[in-house]
Amino acid sequence: MFDAKNLTDKMDKTIEAYKKELSKQRVGRAQPALIANLAVQTYGSEQPLSQISSISAESSTVLAVKPWDKKLIPAIERAIHSSDLGLNPITSGDTVRVPLPPLTEERRKDIVKHIKTVAEQSKVALRNLRRDANTEIKTLEKDNKISEDESKRFQDKVQELTDKFIKTIDTITQEKETEMMKI
């Protein structure tokens, strides 16, 4: 039998993943999530920065990274510097400070463009979930486990859920875009 709850849970996870990706986009304050997942070359493998150090917002424009092993400071600096974030880390003692430059109009537009790209990827993920659910429903109908009327009702429910979640993504995207373009 078709399980709408399972589909709703999967769509909720898609929305959460989208929100998590948006949290990495900075507005006017330093957020540890911005650099938390940068891959740092350590002990012969790559690890996320958040697993080898503590990251905090020292001020509204500076992130502080305190590695648990001081020998990793050069590797952390390299990872931050080589990222596509355009950041220049500064080391003082056992702390790597990452000053965040003010956002220019052009950079804000780039971030909004990235947000829209991620939003579209999330919508595609939702549509893929819809396609999978509809395929499951049609298979159940073909195997005579549900009637044609039930199949139509389930497909309408799937479309209704998809529309609802896509509207949620659009709303979140619009709010983030407005927030990014505010000076």
Secondary structure elements and pairings:
Blueprint: H1 4-23, H2 33-36, E1 39-42, E2 45-48, E3 53-59, E4 62-67, H3 73-82, E5 90-92, E6 95-99, H4 105-142, H5 148-181
Antiparallel strand pairs: 1-2, 3-4, 4-6, 5-6
Helix pairs in contact: 1-4, 1-5, 4-5
Binned strand content: 15-25%
**Domain module tally:** 2
| CATH topology description of the largest domain | Topoisomerase I, Chain A, domain 4
Average pLDDT number: 86
Unreliable stretches covering 5 or more consecutive residues:
none
Q: Care to count the β-strands?
A: 6
Describe this structure in words.
The protein is an alpha+beta fold. It folds into two domains: 4-23 and 104-181, Orthogonal Bundle (Topoisomerase I, Chain A, domain 4), CATH 1.10.132; 33-99, Gyrase A, domain 2 (2-Layer Sandwich), CATH 3.30.1360. The protein is built from five helices and six strands, in the order H-H-E-E-E-E-H-E-E-H-H. The strands form two sheets. Strands 3-4-6-5 form a four-stranded antiparallel beta sheet, covered by helices on one side. Helix 1 packs parallel to helix 5 (148-181) and helix 4 packs antiparallel against helix 5 (148-181). It is elongated, with a radius of gyration of 22 Å. The protein starts with a helix and ends with a helix. The model has no long low-confidence stretch (mean pLDDT 86).
